[in-house]
Amino acid sequence: MGKYFYTDGKEKYGPYSIEELRIQPISRTTKVWCYGMDKWTELSQVAELSNVLNSIPPEINTTPSIGKESSAVEPKTEAEPIHKVEPKTQPSKEIKKSSTFSKWVIAIIVVIIISLFGYAVIQNQSEVNQYNEIVANSYDSDEDFDIYVQKFYRDLEFYGIFPKKPKVQIIKFSKLDQLDNTTHIHGLSFGSGDDDRIEIYINPSTWKQFNKPMRYFLMYHELAHDVLNLDDLEPKSWNEGKLMYPAISSYENKNMDDFIESAHALFEEQSE
Amino acid sequence: MRIFVFILLSFFSITLFGQTFSESDIKKLANQVNEQLRGMDIGNGITARGCLSIGRTLIYQYDVPSYWEPPVNIKEEVIGNLKTAGAAKTYFLYDINVDFYYYKGNSLVKKVSVKSNEFSTYNFELGEYISIKDHVKSKDVNLKLKVPQGWEVKEGDRPNIVKKFTKDGNTYLILIKDNMTFFSRSESKEFLSDESFVNEFVEESSSFMKNLEVIDKSVVTIDTYPSVTFKVRGKVERSGITIPMIMRCWVVFYEDKIVFLQSMGIDNPEFRALEQLYFLITNSVIFPDQYN
Q1: Could you give all domains of chain B from N- to C-terminal order, each with its CATH number?
Q2: Which CATH number fits domain A138-271: 2.60.40, 3.40.390, 3.40.20, 3.40.50?
Q3: What angle do helix axes A256-271 and B185-192 make, rounded to 10 degrees?
Q4: What ipTM was estimated for this complex?
Q5: Which of A4, A119, B46, B223 has its CA 20 to 30 A from that of B97?
Q6: pLDDT beneath 50: ranges in chain A
Q7: Do B184 and A261 touch (CB under 8 A)?
């Protein structure tokens, strides 16, 4: 009878006699070796150790999902058979942990969703309030804004663009300087996405400061939002000079030629 | 000085000739005047000897008494008298020079030479600027220009005529029309570089004339704005009467407007003389918005 070594996958232990091996923390799949064997072999495959094998209780059946987890951690159980002798308790703990974690995740997601919804509602209410404030601050004047609309549509037609000309046209001054939580706004369009309405509010203090080319830039910019549903360009240097550039106040050195050519560039782009 | 009253007689004869006055015509005129004038007692002891012509110069000859001394400013007096009599305008328009020779016996004691342009009765001086800003017909074009001294500024009767300057039936007017869209100066330059476009534009702008003859046309700049100038001749029917007309026009392509600076008159030497004045008016044009 030889003396056997066994391994937990990391270190080897022994040598032990068969009797000594019986009391070691081993399982049926623990690999053993003794002098004369070619390689490490599972205990259950060694005929001389059948008595030892019979003294080790068989493994307990588990559920498939947990089984997966068990098989996933099997190298550990093989190496640490002491943990393996408590197969009943370990999956239930993991299930509990997993269940608790899932609850937390779900709770966080729910909180986030509720927060986003709440934010959207508040935001929407804020926009409605702002719109109401703008309308409340608007007033009629002698300024002939219609001439800009007529020229805008005329120029679009020249470039082969024929948007719907709505019957509802509201273009007024509104004291945009008095809005809460805003920086200086030159003009706002509220008809974007609505083909049946042009609704633009112009800041009267801006209008007073702006020269002729800047007024054209502002009006065509807002009309492009409103009629063509175009968004502002990013306020990057490469967009400077374009009609949809949002920082129009930097255009104080532009002349009518600059306005005309930027409008034409936009219309050409739109007509393609 | 009554000595030049006889000039009126010769002046009337000129109206018998056509729109231009050749050297041959001047010679005929000299002969006619000579027949009327020779031996006439002008007064103050002065007698008309006769009239002849050399090239484009009419030469009036007088016999003066021995005590006669020419006034120091005789030339200015001669020109002034001719302007008062109305003959100076004709000499100027038909490019006729006039000499006056004064004899004592066979000796020429005084010679006065007046070139045709010295007879000009036109004042080519410009007065103050007027602006058409906010004019009901200006279509938002801000333009100012100088009015010739002595000319009257009137409102235009027709829809697109903003203002007009008039004097003695001559007119210079400002007419503004809408263009199809905006054009920047560089875009206008580009389409004006197309000669066929310019030709078509000139003909279309003059389409109210029949038997149109384009005398000249060119692309110019008026206060930094690309423009076309052209001169055309043709016939215009008014109230059943066909009149030969001539027109000098400057057309400025300004943003989304076309500004016509237009002078038109009967096709005669007076129009040609006034062209210089029309040029001066046009040259005074300023579009102030570009400098704001």
Answers
A1: 2-119 (3.30.300.250), 126-291 (3.40.1000.10)
A2: 3.40.390
A3: 70
A4: 0.75
A5: B46
A6: 62-88
A7: yes
